[in-house]
Amino acid sequence: MTERLTIDIYSDVVCPWCAIGYGQLTKALEELDGEIEAQVRWRPFELNPGMLPEGEGFEEHLSRKYGRSAEEGAAVRSQMKEIAREAGVSLSFEGEGTPPEQRMWNTRDCHKLLTFALEQAGPHVQTRLKLAFFKAHFNHRQPLNDRATLLDLAASVGLHREAAKAALDDADLEARVIAEEKQAWDYNITGVPAMIVGGKFMIPGAQAPETYVNALRRVVEKTKAAASAQ
Question: In Å, how far are 61, 139, 178, 179, 194 from 175, measured between CA atoms?
Fold first, then answer.
């Protein structure tokens, strides 16, 4: 009998470890096929909520936020890309010609559209949009501060463009995003990705596939034990 779980992933669309973590989780779920089926939902977490609308150059951002030199940043990125490759994830520019400058962005509008996608079209479409945002940022280096770009991406996964445009200006939707971000802090989530399984078991960070496999099996065991004890 296949056990069904919900996995709520707090993450940001400019977070490379979030893309890696989802790649590793996907591998784990493939291994658990027929044993555990998971419904993935994406929850908002802004790494840089105070980021200016025009964004910030990636190297400048690393230096300012983490105090890393260019050499240290290059070493970290090289290691990260290797881990990503093993997870089946690309963090490299895939377009033609000279790559545009890599920048960090304010991602509030992305999270508003992701919340809209979940509420209007369900978790599968929301995941498609999340992956489209990852690809836009890491592989195409598109400007995530540009609403036309975001609406194009929303339309590419089947969302109605005008409805998505209205969502970006919806104050109630933004309030829900802010409330969910506050909930992350209530869960003591200070870094992402962070996965809440079954509404109460947290798996922090981007883990290896076998770690996710073992953790999800333990959640199922605990859930069954709790149910039988009632």
Answer: 27, 30, 5, 6, 21
